[in-house]
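Long-time lurker, first post.

We've been arguing in lab meeting about whether 3-isopropylmalic acid would sit comfortably in this protein at all. Half the group thinks yes, half thinks no, and nobody has a model to point at. So I'm putting the question to the forum: if I give you the sequence and the SMILES, can you give me back a predicted structure of the complex? Inputs are below. Any interpretation is welcome too.
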Amino acid sequence: MKIALLAGDGIGPEIVAQAERVLLYFKQEGLKIELEPGLLGGCAVDATGKPFPEATRKLSVEADAILLGAVGGIQYDNLPREKRPEQGLLAIRKTLGLFANLRPIVLYPELVNASTLKPEIVTGLDILIVRELTGDIYFGKPRGIEYRDGQKVGFNTMIYSESEIRRIAHVAFQAARRRSGRLCSVDKMNVLECTQLWRDVVTETAQSYPDVTLSHMLVDNAAMQLVRNPKQFDVIVTGNMFGDILSDEASMLTGSIGMLPSASLDDRNRGLYEPIHGSAPDIAGKNIANPLATILSAAMMLRYSFNEETAASRIESAVQKTLKQGYRTEDIYETGLRRTGTVEMGDMVLANL
Amino acid sequence: MKIALLAGDGIGPEIVAQAERVLLYFKQEGLKIELEPGLLGGCAVDATGKPFPEATRKLSVEADAILLGAVGGIQYDNLPREKRPEQGLLAIRKTLGLFANLRPIVLYPELVNASTLKPEIVTGLDILIVRELTGDIYFGKPRGIEYRDGQKVGFNTMIYSESEIRRIAHVAFQAARRRSGRLCSVDKMNVLECTQLWRDVVTETAQSYPDVTLSHMLVDNAAMQLVRNPKQFDVIVTGNMFGDILSDEASMLTGSIGMLPSASLDDRNRGLYEPIHGSAPDIAGKNIANPLATILSAAMMLRYSFNEETAASRIESAVQKTLKQGYRTEDIYETGLRRTGTVEMGDMVLANL
Ligand SMILES: CC(C)[C@H](C(=O)O)[C@@H](O)C(=O)O
Ligand SMILES: CC(C)[C@H](C(=O)O)[C@@H](O)C(=O)O
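Top reply:
Settle the argument with this. Predicted structure of the protein with 3-isopropylmalic acid, as tokens:
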């Protein structure tokens, strides 16, 4: 099995290096994997002029799974749109058909103080957000900026087809079935026809899952309810744009976005795995970034793409043990605990494996 | 000066009745106002078959300001789109050109416990969200659901012209000038061309306001930052769709959305004023709804549409005094304080005027 390692920009290389050590540990134990590095994002622009170069495309298409660090940096912000690092990310998602973005939002009991919310509101928080990732206004056409009646207008197209909605709905219903059996679909059907279709198709798909309880919520209300009472949710499914906003809001409820992994899967569970946090150029190269979200992303890879549930659980347990032992990177540090660098955090997880 | 009273559905009539008493108090004191009732939303559908009937259109166009309760109810959810109560709201906004939606998010010191966030995160919270209200994907065309290649697709158009962006930017810069001089514009320029134009035009408009510090933030990050550290914000300006989501998220930070008013203004400060909460049909007619957001909306009306700053401030002080005295409707009740009904809350505000 071939894994592409796309470290990316900013803290990307440091955090991917720690996850790589974890993967190599399992290789030593007999897991048949090959790791191959590639360029994506700003580093790819620097090296080749393109955020998603042909060599990376080839590597990604051949790989069984991809581990990504993070892309982006202010030095790229003024490049023309097609050369910005994010375009590399959007292109790899689209090229590989990674339509199912899974974002588990879990609050570790050891980190409950990191949240800005009261402990009773977030203790035990465990939500799975299923975000559609290759459709919606992200990719819809027509799009652009042009002159109309003597002035510029900017426009984008929010669009979903029945089949796009149906396949992400199936992923969400199946996830809900494996969890508590509750699924909440988020839309803005009272204003947008596109999301009226979303609601209709999700409702129709529910017929194949009589064991799952489906509810619907408007996106503005969902943004409120995540703050008011996040534990009411188990699995949430929504489109690309609303998913971008709600999953980031939800992740911040934990107060420790340095801990949150994600998976982006195609229809055969080939996937790209990445921490949900960004490239944090301000702390890059200082050995203070938190590698745990990337290590947990590697665990998701073993689970979803390689069906190695035992290895995945072992990584998750090792991370939890490391937290119990009091090791904390800067972002989750609390007085009295052990301030730990990026590499040392990797050491501890390996020691606990 | 003519004020249209559109009580709407659910708790609308009860809460508007209390705000009406406050307005009549100022009329007695010499303020030259005429109040005229009209139908909007579900009650209008029941009476006329339309959520925004011609009589209401006429009344609204003639009025100098409109006080709205709330619209909507589950009994209307299955009506065809054009007959749903929300369409009345969208139609009145568009017809009157109410492009500037002002949503102050204020945490009253007396209500700090109502928030799900830790007191140190929200104490003193005072944000103004300026949301564009007559453009964006809410009104963009083409839109609809149709068959393409043998399956249904749903689509909407996010669209802004330079002039639409410029006029809301001016409103926001002027508000920032009257407050702390800091404005944060929210977009998704890394993905959407429409919001790239948004960022360009807001940046250009900033040249006329050298005394205001402008920053930009991506919408997903804004959704996070509102949870992480909401007090970093003073004035936020954004489009209709992102504004819908972020303003609801922000309002919930206070834990007491029964307290939050809003104004929707045209280019001559004619406006529609309404509480940000909904029609809450489950508690309608029970004398337990909180009328304060509607009373505070009336205060905003006196300030923005009628330039009656003194009267507006007097209402706001009376509300604050009522809270200090310990009067609380159900939604903001805490043990030990005085549980108060809708009408009694109106009594107390009047007594404190
Ligand atoms: C970088 C950006 C294009 C991306 C997105 O909006 O999808 C990011 O915010 C994410 O959520 O992965
Ligand atoms: C009722 C609905 C159409 C409306 C909107 O989305 O604008 C509401 O959510 C609001 O924010 O006033």
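For your lab meeting: Chain B touches chain A through 61 residues (CB under 8 Å). Chain B has a mean pLDDT of 97. Whichever side wins, do check it experimentally.
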